[in-house]
Amino acid sequence: MINTLTQKSLNLLIKIAKNAEYENYDNNFFDALMKFTAEERGNLADLKKKGLVETIADEGGYIWVIFTEISIPLAKAIK
């Protein structure tokens, strides 16, 4: 799945992984709370479509990004 990402989507995945919190590391729960530009939101949609992340928007314009089982090994390697 990673090899089908555009360079911009891959760069965004790396950025998210570097900003992710790992408080629940033992439960394989990796998440990041971030704001995204319009362009990044397009790449975020690509990551969601490919099953690499899930998102939850909050009222302040931030988006929680949660890594899925597929992307957790990559997130671990990046962090």
Describe the structure.
Helix 1 crosses helix 2 (38-49). The protein has a four-stranded antiparallel beta sheet, with helices on one face. 41% of the residues lie in helices and 25% in strands. The chain has helices at 7-19, 38-49, 72-78; strands at 21-24, 29-34, 53-57, 63-67. The two termini are 19 Å apart. It has three helices and four strands; from the N terminus they run H-E-E-H-E-E-H. It has one domain (2-78): Arc Repressor Mutant, subunit A. It has 79 residues and is of the alpha+beta class. The model has no long low-confidence stretch (mean pLDDT 86). Strand 3 (53-57) and strand 4 form a beta hairpin.
Task: Give a brief rundown of this model.
The protein is an alpha+beta fold and 79 residues long. It has helices spanning 7-19, 38-49, 72-78, and strands at 21-24, 29-34, 53-57, 63-67. The chain has a single domain, classed as Arc Repressor Mutant, subunit A.
What keyword list fits this structure?
single chain, 79 residues, alpha+beta, Arc Repressor Mutant, subunit A, 4-stranded antiparallel sheet, 25% strand, globular
Layout of helices and strands, plus pairs?
Elements: H1 7-19, E1 21-24, E2 29-34, H2 38-49, E3 53-57, E4 63-67, H3 72-78
Antiparallel strand pairs: 1-2, 2-4, 3-4
